[in-house]
Specification:
By secondary structure, the protein is α+β, with helices and mostly antiparallel strands. The protein has one domain: Archaeosine Trna-guanine Transglycosylase, Chain: A, domain 4 (Roll). The protein has four helices and six strands; from the N terminus they run βαβββααββα. Strands 2-5-4-3-1-6 form a six-stranded mixed β-sheet.
Length: about 140
């Protein structure tokens, strides 16, 4: 069964995501926090710029995960994927000591006119930049 997620991104990434120029979303960090191990092909991901309303809905095409990373591994990820991630120097410098990485490719991204189709639990304010709807809300997910 597919899951429903909310991905909060810096506003500068919205246009490249919607145009298809940015084809991979990357999440790197020190621990196994979502989306690591929590997102799969076929899942629905709502896209929300920081401080704004949800603007798009995407379907996950592919997920690649990496763990036990070294700074050299992170450097290799940058060399291999940055043309699709579009992270830039500051992003990669801030992620140099990451131990885990999740790279997500989408097969479709569509504009969302109304947040009414987004599970309400995903819109509850918190500090997480990646949120997952409770699987008990699957009826709402399928209707969305």
């Amino acid at each position: 069964m597919s899951k429903t997620h909310l991905m909060i991104v810096h506003p500068r990434y919205i246009a490249p995501l919607l145009s298809g120029a940015k084809t991979l979303e990357s999440r790197l960090g020190q621990d196994r926090r979502a989306p690591f191990g929590k997102v799969s092909p076929g899942d629905i991901v709502y896209i929300k710029p920081t401080g704004k309303r949800v603007v798009a809905k995407a379907v996950v095409r592919r997920v690649d995960e990496f763990e036990d990373l070294t700074p050299e591994d992170v450097k290799n990820l940058r060399e291999t994927y940055d043309d699709r991630i579009m992270g830039g120097d500051q992003y990669w410098q801030s992620k140099a000591d990451s131990k885990y990485a999740t790279l997500i490719g989408f097969k479709s991204i569509t504009l969302l006119r109304d947040e009414a189709t987004v599970p309400a639990e995903l819109l509850v304010a918190n500090r997480n930049a990646w949120r997952i709807a409770d699987e008990s809300s699957s009826d709402h997910q399928q209707a969305a």
